[in-house]
């Protein structure tokens, strides 16, 4: 019983982790909204602290005590990133990036401090149709390979999670069969009495 409960808990955590990741595609020169919302909806403006990071270290945007803070913002995001302040009290902390470049591709993390939540968005940047026509086929293929690598990485994580779940399930089934085999090999009271009577004769 305890093992099945543990299995359900592990499975729920793994599914939750996978569902918190999102992949978004956009084109060079365009704009994109990176979604981040809190599961808690009872927010006080002064308690809201949100930190957007790109590839783990670049400061994209901060919301401190409910106010936009761009003091420590990485130079490459100045005048290119914006939030939706009217949505903060509703738990929407999404950002919009403008004038996208290839360097904007990667992993964006939204830390929601007051509720200890973390959302991950993988941004894939593709060339617009007009730019593809102007570039050679080789350069176009390199951009597609980068996008394929990011998609492959995401798929790899899904396969790893599925493999772990299957491994836990296999261990659970083996544990159940071992318990049944051990129970079957232990003689019952009636069998013990018969064996003792046979041995006494």
From TrEMBL:
<keyword id="KW-0393">Immunoglobulin domain</keyword>
<keyword id="KW-0325">Glycoprotein</keyword>
<keyword id="KW-0675">Receptor</keyword>
<dbReference type="InterPro" id="IPR036179">
    <property type="entry name" value="Ig-like_dom_sf"/>
</dbReference>
<dbReference type="GO" id="GO:0007166">
    <property type="term" value="P:cell surface receptor signaling pathway"/>
</dbReference>
<keyword id="KW-0732">Signal</keyword>
<keyword id="KW-1133">Transmembrane helix</keyword>
<dbReference type="InterPro" id="IPR013106">
    <property type="entry name" value="Ig_V-set"/>
</dbReference>
<dbReference type="Pfam" id="PF07686">
    <property type="entry name" value="V-set"/>
</dbReference>
<dbReference type="GO" id="GO:0042102">
    <property type="term" value="P:positive regulation of T cell proliferation"/>
</dbReference>
<dbReference type="InterPro" id="IPR051713">
    <property type="entry name" value="T-cell_Activation_Regulation"/>
</dbReference>
<feature type="domain" description="Ig-like">
    <location>
        <begin position="29"/>
        <end position="122"/>
    </location>
</feature>
<keyword id="KW-0812">Transmembrane</keyword>
<dbReference type="GO" id="GO:0006955">
    <property type="term" value="P:immune response"/>
</dbReference>
<keyword id="KW-1003">Cell membrane</keyword>
<dbReference type="InterPro" id="IPR003599">
    <property type="entry name" value="Ig_sub"/>
</dbReference>
<feature type="signal peptide">
    <location>
        <begin position="1"/>
        <end position="20"/>
    </location>
</feature>
<dbReference type="GO" id="GO:0042130">
    <property type="term" value="P:negative regulation of T cell proliferation"/>
</dbReference>
<feature type="transmembrane region" description="Helical">
    <location>
        <begin position="156"/>
        <end position="177"/>
    </location>
</feature>
<dbReference type="InterPro" id="IPR007110">
    <property type="entry name" value="Ig-like_dom"/>
</dbReference>
<dbReference type="InterPro" id="IPR013783">
    <property type="entry name" value="Ig-like_fold"/>
</dbReference>
<protein>
    <recommendedName>
        <fullName>Ig-like domain-containing protein</fullName>
    </recommendedName>
</protein>
<dbReference type="GO" id="GO:0009897">
    <property type="term" value="C:external side of plasma membrane"/>
</dbReference>
<dbReference type="GO" id="GO:0031295">
    <property type="term" value="P:T cell costimulation"/>
</dbReference>
<dbReference type="GO" id="GO:0071222">
    <property type="term" value="P:cellular response to lipopolysaccharide"/>
</dbReference>
<keyword id="KW-1015">Disulfide bond</keyword>
<keyword id="KW-0472">Membrane</keyword>
């Amino acid at each position: 019983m305890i093992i099945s409960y543990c299995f359900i808990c592990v499975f729920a955590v793994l599914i939750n982790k996978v569902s918190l990741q999102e992949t978004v595609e956009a084109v060079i020169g365009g704009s994109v909204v990176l979604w981040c919302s809190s599961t808690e909806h009872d927010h006080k403006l002064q308690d809201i602290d949100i930190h957007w990071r790109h590839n783990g270290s670049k400061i994209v945007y901060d919301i401190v005590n409910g106010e936009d803070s761009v003091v420590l913002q990485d130079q490459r995001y100045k005048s290119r990133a914006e939030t939706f302040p009217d949505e903060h009290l509703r738990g929407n902390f999404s950002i919009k990036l403008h004038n996208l470049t290839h360097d904007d591709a990667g992993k964006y993390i939204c830390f929601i401090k007051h509720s200890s939540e973390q959302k991950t968005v993988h941004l894939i940047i593709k060339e617009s149709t007009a730019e593809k026509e102007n570039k050679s086929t080789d350069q176009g293929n390199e951009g597609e390979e980068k996008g394929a690598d990011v998609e492959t990485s995401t798929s790899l994580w899904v396969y790893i999670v599925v493999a772990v779940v299957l491994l836990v399930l296999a261990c659970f089934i083996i544990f159940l069969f071992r318990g049944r085999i051990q129970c079957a090999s232990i003689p019952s009271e009636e069998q013990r009495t018969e064996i003792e009577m046979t041995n006494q004769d």
